[in-house]
Amino acid sequence: MVKSRRLVNNRDMSKKKWTAVDHYIDSTLAPSDAALDAALESAKAAGLPQISVTASQGKLLYLLAKAQGAKRILEIGTLGGYSTIWMARALTEGGKLVTVEADPKHAQVALENIARAGLADAVELRQGKALDILPEVEGPFDLIFIDADKRNNARYFEWALKLSRKGTLIIVDNVVREGEILDVDSTDPDIRGTRELFEMIAAEPRVIATAQQTVGSKGHDGFAIALVTG
Question: Which residues of the chain have pLDDT under 70?
Answer without folding.
Answer: 1-11
